[in-house]
Design a protein that fits this description.
With about 160 residues, this protein is mainly α. The protein has seven helices and no strands. The radius of gyration is 19 Å and the shape is elongated. The mean pLDDT is about 80.
Length: about 160
C-alpha cells in the first residue's frame, strides 16, 4: 500500500501514522467473532455474516479515505485514485484466478456449493465489471498524478537555483 500511495505525494507518511491506521481498521473485525450460527437459522446466519462482511469492508474503505485526506494530506483526486486503484487491482486479481466467489463465500460462511443466484456471485460479478472498466482510467489518473508531482518538484528545484 505504501508503494502505491507514496508516489502520489503523501505527507506525514510515518510508521506510527500507518500503524494507527491499521489498528483502527481492525476494530470492526470483532463482528466476525459473533457466533450468529449459534442463535440463528443457517440462512439468517449467512445473511448476517454477509452484512458483517459489508460493514467491515465499508468501514475499512472509509478509514482509508479519511486517513488519506486528514493524515496524508492528499488532494481529493489523489485520494480517489489511491483508494479505488488498489481496490480495483485486488478485485481484478482475485477474479482472474476465479477465486472471488469462493472468497466471499468463505468469508461470509456460505455453503460450499456455489449457485448462480447466490448473492456472493452477483456481488463479485458486479464489482469485477466495475473494476474492469474503471482500472484503465484509474491507472491513467495514477500516472498523471505521478507526472504532475514530478513536474512540480522539478519546477521547485529550478526556482531554488
Amino acid at each position: 500500500m505504501w508503494l502505491v500511495i507514496w508516489p502520489l505525494g503523501a505527507e506525514r507518511w510515518t510508521y506510527r501514522n500507518v500503524l494507527v491506521f491499521v489498528t483502527l481498521t481492525s476494530l470492526p473485525a470483532l463482528l466476525y467473532a459473533i457466533p450468529v450460527e449459534q442463535f440463528m437459522s443457517m440462512s439468517a446466519a449467512q445473511n448476517s455474516n454477509l452484512a458483517f462482511l459489508a460493514i467491515v469492508a465499508v468501514w475499512r474503505v472509509a478509514m482509508l479515505v479519511g486517513f488519506l485526506f486528514r493524515v496524508a494530506k492528499l488532494h481529493w483526486f489523489a485520494v480517489m485514485i489511491g483508494t479505488l486503484g488498489p481496490l480495483a487491482m485486488i478485485i481484478l486479481s482475485v477474479i482472474s484466478f476465479n477465486g472471488g466467489k469462493y472468497l466471499v463465500m468463505i468469508m461470509a460462511g456460505l455453503g460450499r456449493e456455489p449457485r448462480a443466484e447466490d448473492l456472493a456471485n452477483q456481488a463479485v460479478l458486479m464489482l469485477g465489471l466495475i473494476s474492469l472498466y474503471a482500472a484503465p482510467f484509474l491507472f491513467a489518473g495514477y500516472l498523471g498524478l505521478i507526472i504532475h508531482r514530478y513536474v512540480k518538484r522539478s519546477a521547485a528545484k529550478v526556482e531554488q537555483k
